[in-house]
Design a protein that fits this description.
This protein is α+β, with helices and mostly antiparallel strands and about 150 residues long. The protein has a single domain, classed as Trna Endonuclease, Chain: A, domain 1 (3-Layer(aba) Sandwich), CATH 3.40.1350. Helix content is about 20%, strand content about 30%. Strand 1, helix 1 and strand 2 form a beta-alpha-beta unit. The longest helix is centred in the last third of the chain and has 16 residues.
Length: about 150
C-alpha cells in the first residue's frame, strides 16, 4: 500500500476548519508521513477526534493519524503571523496550544505529537518531546515516539 494514501474518517465539507487546518489536510500531512518508518503507512486521519483531560483543563488536538503499526500521531496546526514590520511571530494561541500539546505528550508518551506551523514559506513540523519529569522514568521514549 502507498504510504501517502490516506482514508479520511470523519472529515467532511461541513467541518469548520481554519485555513491552515484545511491546508494541512490537503498538503501539510505529507511532511508528517515522510517521518514514518518505511514499512508504516497512515490508515486514517481524523479531525478533532480525541480530547485529553489534562491537569489544567481539557485539550483537543486538531488531527489524529492512525498508522498501520497501530501507532497514533496527534498534530496541532497553527499559522505563523507576519507583523507590520514584516517579522514572523506566533501569538498567545500558539503558546497556549504548545504548552497543552507538551502536557498531553508528557502524560501519553506512547503516542507521537507534532506541532505543524504554516507560514508564507511553507510548513514547519516540530516534534513535541515528552517532559521526562512528568511521566515515570521507567518509560523511555525514543525519537520517533515509540517506547523502548
Amino acid at each position: 500500500m502507498n504510504k501517502f494514501a490516506i482514508t479520511y474518517d470523519y472529515i467532511n465539507s461541513n467541518t469548520k476548519m481554519s485555513r491552515p487546518e484545511r491546508l494541512f489536510q490537503d498538503e501539510g500531512y505529507l511532511l508528517v508521513v515522510e517521518k514514518l518508518p518505511e514499512n508504516v503507512h497512515v490508515e486514517s486521519m481524523m479531525y478533532e477526534w480525541v480530547t485529553f483531560n489534562l491537569p489544567g483543563g481539557r485539550y483537543t488536538p486538531d488531527f489524529l493519524m492512525r498508522c498501520s503499526d497501530r501507532s497514533e500521531i496527534y498534530i496541532e496546526v497553527k499559522q505563523e503571523n507576519i507583523s507590520k514590520r514584516g517579522r514572523a511571530y506566533r501569538g498567545q494561541s500558539y503558546r497556549d496550544s504548545r504548552s497543552k500539546l507538551r502536557a498531553a505528550a508528557s502524560l501519553n508518551p506512547w503516542h507521537t505529537f507534532y506541532m505543524a506551523i504554516y507560514s508564507r514559506g511553507g510548513w514547519k513540523i516540530e516534534y513535541i518531546e515528552p517532559d521526562p519529569f512528568i511521566y515515570p522514568t521507567s518509560i523511555k521514549v525514543n525519537g520517533n515516539g515509540t517506547i523502548e
